[in-house]
Specification:
Elements lengths: L5 E6 L3 H16 L3 E2 L8 E6 L4 H14 L8 E5 H7 L2 H5 L3 E5 L7 H9 L5 E3 L21 E8 L10 H4 L4 E2 L2 H13 L4 E6 L14 H9 L6 E5 L8 H9 L6 E3 L7 H6 L6 H12 L6 E8 L6 H14 L3 E6 L17 H24 L5 E10 L4 E6 L4 E5 L11 E9 L4 E5 L1
Parallel strand pairs: 1-2, 1-3, 3-4, 4-5, 5-6, 7-9, 9-10, 11-12, 12-13, 16-18
Antiparallel strand pairs: 7-8, 14-15, 14-17, 15-16, 17-18
Helix pairs in contact: 8-9, 12-13
This protein binds 5'-deoxyadenosine and iron/sulfur cluster.
């Protein structure tokens, strides 16, 4: 029985998961647990997992396998997050040394589940499915990021894109009240954070349960919290991307010059198969709003290649869209069939080799686009927020408002702390980063 109240937690996957972990850590600490750095030193080992693609899902089982020998030493294992929700009790069959399996829609019950764990129960589950209306709000968040305060404003997903596991792993869409979001933003500011990132699977599908603020109004209100200098938000869905979001970025200086708007494909036919509920023209109209803003808003996107039935011509249309938009960053993925999803029943006749080839063509082209986009910053002076240091290279690593990585040198004997702001003159450009010196 685990009387030793120490824990080790490892996170896989997206920023939502990273932030869920901050809340889980805070909850564990409030229940008297102490975090340790090594699996070997922990009484309770937790993995917060991701199942977005097959490779991500395999990671947790590899990790469990690597560490199952520790079980003999009386340790307990818990699997949290998307793989937990997706696989449920099957995890106990595959890894019998696991005692607790909980999806993110059940984290509010963690204190109760921990009590049962401490009492020696071995097959504890928190597997609330899409019935859950509640969000996981806690005042005990243990913020692990030194410069960015995350706030989840909307949980779950109701979009059901044909390829995506998230509606099944994170439950149905539910928003927090804007009053509670703003109270958290104020707490973050009081703790000294100057950057806030609002999170949601479809962050702009936000609907205030109190009806006080639209998503754009909430963005503005967060941006006006005293002490906050940068506000980011991710991920936006094109379906719910309204023009007032661009207007508010133009109006409120603290809102960052960046929108992440996943397109997934440039082919109307594939978008339809994907159940994305928009056409390339609809997407490009939103891009034109963003490009027409007074501020230079950078654009990033996600693209899936090799979706079942994607023809060479469909892929060319994705390449055309890439050339037309000239994104500043593209996350490209090979389609990966996921449990429960409608796409799994479609014929996935595109070989792995063909998927890899398409991805390579896409990434090579995008690299050239970025080389040109980034070169336009040469000679500019921009505000950079310090994120980390690279002492080996004598460099400071930071990020511009447009979300571009900036590596720079500064004359100061003591390197500026993460979270500080510097004016940097750009002296070199690359396809994925900028270099410069502080002025
Ligand atoms: N296969 C490949 N990529 C996927 N994504 C989501 N589901 C899948 C899948 N089954 C990608 C999408 C999404 C990003 C987070 O991951 O591009 O926007
Ligand atoms: Fe992975 Fe999606 Fe779950 Fe995030 S929400 S952890 S990306 S499966």
């Amino acid at each position: 029985m685990a009387t030793d109240k120490t824990f080790y937690l490892e996170t896989f996957g997206c920023q939502m998961n990273a932030h869920d972990s901050e809340k889980v850590i805070g909850t564990l600490q409030h229940e008297g647990y102490r975090q340790v750095e090594l699996e070997e030193d922990a009484g309770l080992i937790l993995y917060n997992t991701c199942s977005i693609r097959d490779k991500a899902e395999q990671k947790v089982f590899n990790r469990l396998n690597d560490h199952k020998k520790l079980y003999k030493a009386g340790k307990r294992f818990a699997v949290l997050g998307c793989v937990a929700q997706q696989e449920g009790e099957k995890i106990f069959e595959r890894a019998p040394y696991v005692s607790l399996v909980s999806g993110s829609a059940s984290y509010r019950k963690l204190p109760e589940m921990l009590v049962r764990l401490e009492a020696g129960e071995t097959r504890i589950t928190g597997l609330d499915d899409r019935q859950t209306e509640e969000t996981f709000e806690t005042e005990f968040t243990s913020r692990q990021n030194p410069y960015r305060g995350y706030i989840t404003i909307i949980e779950g997903c109701d979009k059901f894109c044909a390829y995506c596991v998230v509606p099944y792993t994170r439950g149905k869409e539910r928003s927090r009240t804007s009053t509670s979001v703003l109270a958290e933003a104020q707490r973050i500011a009081d703790q000294g954070y100057t950057e806030i990132q609002l999170l949601g699977q479809n962050v702009n599908s936000y609907r205030d349960p109190e009806g006080k603020r639209s998503f754009a109004e909430l963005l503005a209100a967060v941006g006006e919290v005293g002490g906050i200098r940068r506000v980011r938000f991710t991920t936006s869905h094109p379906r719910d991307f309204t023009r007032d979001i661009v207007e508010v970025i133009d109006q409120v200086p603290t809102l960052c010059d960046h929108v992440h708007l996943p397109v997934q494909s440039g082919s109307a036919r594939v978008l339809k198969l994907m159940a994305r509920e928009y056409t390339p023209e609809w997407y490009l109209e939103r891009i034109s709003w963003i490009k027409a803003a007074r501020r230079p808003i950078s654009l990033s996107t996600d693209i899936i290649v090799g979706f079942p039935g994607e023809t060479p011509d469909d892929f060319i249309q994705t390449m055309d869209l890439l050339a037309q938009v000239e994104f500043d960053c593209v996350y490209g993925f090979k389609y990966s069939g996921r449990p429960n999803t409608p796409a799994l029943t479609m014929i996935d006749s595109i070989s792995e080799a063909e998927k890899s080839a398409r991805l390579q063509v896409l990434l090579d082209r995008q690299r050239e686009i970025q080389r040109i986009n980034y070169s336009k910053h040469l000679g500019q002076v921009m505000e950079v927020m310090v994120e980390a240091h690279n002492p080996a290279r004598g460099q400071i690593i930071g990020r511009s408002s447009q979300n571009k990585p900036v590596n720079f040198t500064c004359g100061q004997a003591i390197a500026p702390a993460p979270g500080s702001y510097m004016q940097v003159k750009i002296t070199g450009t690359h396809p994925n980063s900028l270099t410069g010196e502080s002025v």
